[in-house]
Amino acid sequence: MRIGKAKPDLASTAGARDSSASATSSCTPAAATAARIAAAHRDTPGALLPILHAVQDELGCIPPDAVEPIAQALNLSRAEVHGVITFYPHFRQAPAGRRVVAVCQAESCQAMGSEVLSSHIRARLGCDFHATAADGSVTLEPAYCLGLCAMSPAITIDGHPYARVTPDRFDQLMQQADALSTEADAQRPVQQ
Ligand code: FES
């Protein structure tokens, strides 16, 4: 899922540039990764979003210690970078669960029962949108059109799209996904 052209409101994040380096954060693996990615993109126009996407793709999230190297590379304040991260629901500040379920909340899916489906999924997973189940098994996210409007309601499980999903079908899909994970685990060589 890539972010479109929405324009972040940086007014609330305006303020003095804070380019002070944090010796601690700049030494972490996440900070080193963020610094490398930021350096590679810093001369690209509108570099912040591509950098944030790349950091999340590599680290699974944008942890707090990745913010400062990005800010430094782009001559922004940490508050400005943090403001963009928190503006877009796509960006995570903590790792997702082992599985990510996204449920479309856009108009066509709403008209075809996504609210009932969402209620079922929240109860089934034991967590709300933008949250991860207590056991870390799954993160639940809203989506806003998955391009399957003619076959609403639609969801993705780990990025794989599923159309015309009912509560019963969701349960079946999760059972299948769990079974496939168990099978894959069984085929992995024993670690010694
Ligand atoms: S509105 Fe749900 S897939 Fe388009």
Brief write-up:
With 192 residues, this protein is α+β, with helices and mostly antiparallel strands.
Plain-language structure description:
- The longest helix is centred in the last third of the chain and has 21 residues.
- With 192 residues, the chain is of the alpha+beta class.
- The protein folds into 2 domains: 77 residues, no CATH class; 89 residues, Glutaredoxin (3-Layer(aba) Sandwich).
- The two termini are 37 Å apart.
- It has 7 helices and 5 strands.
Feature tags:
192 residues; alpha+beta; Glutaredoxin; five-stranded mixed beta sheet; 5 strands; binds FE2/S2 (inorganic) cluster
Q: Provide the CATH architecture of the largest domain.
A: 3-Layer(aba) Sandwich
Major sheet: arrangement of strands: 2-3-1-4-5
Number of helical runs?
7
Poorly predicted sequence stretches spanning 5 or more consecutive residues: 1-25
- How big is the Rg? 19 Å
In helices, the fraction of residues equals 40-55%
The CATH H-level homologous superfamily of the largest domain: Glutaredoxin
Identify the overall geometry.
Answer: elongated
Helix and strand arrangement:
Layout: H1 29-41, H2 48-59, H3 67-74, H4 78-87, E1 99-104, H5 107-111, H6 114-125, E2 131-132, E3 138-143, E4 155-157, E5 160-162, H7 167-187
The chain binds FE2/S2 (inorganic) cluster.
